[in-house]
Design brief:
It is built from ten helices and nine strands. By secondary structure, the chain is α+β, with helices and mostly antiparallel strands. The strands form two sheets. The protein has a five-stranded mixed sheet. Strands 2-1-4-3 form a four-stranded antiparallel sheet, covered by helices on one side.
Length: 375
């Protein structure tokens, strides 16, 4: 029998190097997966920041060398989010989380059992790099969410200021301008009816007086309609359903279009004034857009309370448009109608969907949680 060949030291070294390379690649894949999953979490606009941080803890725990005994905790401003198994670890490493250059918290990764020594205690050098990268990434996510919240607050203040100004203008138009014009018309009619005045006017003069009185009446009606659009009186007195119904009927009478309105499920639902006002403004803008730009013959409006949502649907049979193109054009031309609709719905904790294609009309849907102002 031939004696077994002696072990080849070069082959053994190559195999060891290969195993080391494979292990390093596996670690890199875990690190990339970790950062990708945290990025994906941060893009979930409906997820609160605490949910993102809790998810980041779970994702990070799977990326360390010994995931079965890994626990992770994120602390931001005294609030903690951690993996369910978090307790005082045997070995721990941490990295500060910064926003705008200031430390706002930290992320900690620990092993619950004693593990073999590596570069930083039981932790690999690459795990230190990953921990710092995760901390930096979380800092950017938190800063982005804070910026979004500041923008939402500014939007709230802008819309509140718009409504305050609308109410002021509506009161001035109704109580001051319209009243003064009514007095002028009344005085003109009385003057024309005074003994001797009518007889002194020629037929053309009498016609001019009648025409002036009629034009003043039309101007007064227009001012009162404008004041009603700026501050719909039915909304405060009769509620959202009646105000929306009146708006649809008035739009149909003014434009000659067929505007169908129906409400369902709102008999047992009370909608607070601010929620009702914002939804009314969304409907107002949707109807105005359909009438001005849609070239439609029929508009259908549905107001539905279907737990857990309050829904407003507006559809037309007009020419339609590309929503992304139209929104970009509107912002470029400083026409804020579509933006305002979406912002009002977002401020109520809801979502606005606009579906349209050229030649296929427009479908607008606003979804508001019933807990956001509806009971």
């Amino acid at each position: 029998m031939n004696a077994p060949a002696p072990p080849d030291p070069l082959a053994a070294a190559r195999e060891a190097e290969h195993a080391k390379t494979v292990a390093a690649l596996c670690e890199r894949i875990k690190e990339l997966d970790c950062l990708y999953e945290i990025t994906r979490l941060s893009q979930c606009q409906d997820m609160a920041l605490d949910g993102i941080l809790a998810g980041a803890c779970r994702v990070a725990a799977r990326a360390w060398q010994y995931p079965a005994v890994t626990c992770v905790r994120v602390t931001i401003g005294g609030r903690n989010q951690a993996t369910p198994n978090w307790r005082r670890p045997v070995a721990r490493q941490e990295s500060p989380i910064r926003s705008r250059g200031e430390v706002i918290g930290r992320i900690e990764v620990g092993y619950l059992d004693k593990c073999a020594e590596a570069d930083e205690g039981p932790f690999l050098r690459e795990e230190r790099h990953l921990l710092d990268a995760v901390a930096e990434h979380l800092g950017r996510i938190i800063e982005s969410r804070n910026n979004e919240e500041r923008l939402r607050q500014l939007s709230r203040e802008l819309i509140r200021a718009q409504e305050t100004e609308r109410q002021r203008i509506a009161r001035e138009l109704h109580d001051d301008v319209a009243q003064n014009l009514s007095l002028v018309r009344l005085s003109l009619d009385r003057l024309a009816a005074m003994p001797g005045v009518a007889d002194s006017l020629s037929p053309d003069g009498q016609e001019a007086v009648r025409e002036s009185s009629a034009r003043l009446g039309a101007a007064i009606a227009s001012l009162r309609n404008l004041a009603s659009d700026l501050l719909p009186p039915a909304l405060d007195r009769l509620g959202l359903v009646e105000a929306a119904s009146n708006l649809c009927h008035e739009t149909a009478a003014r434009t000659g279009l067929m505007v169908e309105f129906s409400a369902d499920g709102l008999d047992a639902v009370r909608v607070d004034f601010q929620t009702g006002l914002n939804l009314y403004r969304v409907l107002q803008e949707a109807l105005a857009n359909a009438c001005r730009h849609g070239r439609c013959s029929r508009i259908v409006v549905r107001l539905i309370a279907s737990h857990p949502l309050l829904l407003l649907r507006v559809g037309d049979d007009g020419v339609g448009f590309d929503p992304e193109v139209r929104l970009a054009e509107a912002l470029g031309q400083k026409r804020m109608g579509l933006w305002s609709m979406g912002e009002r719905v977002r401020l109520l904790g809801g979502r606005l969907t606009i579906r349209s294609r050229p030649g296929q009309g427009v479908r607008i849907k606003a979804e508001i949680p019933l807990g956001q102002g509806a009971t």
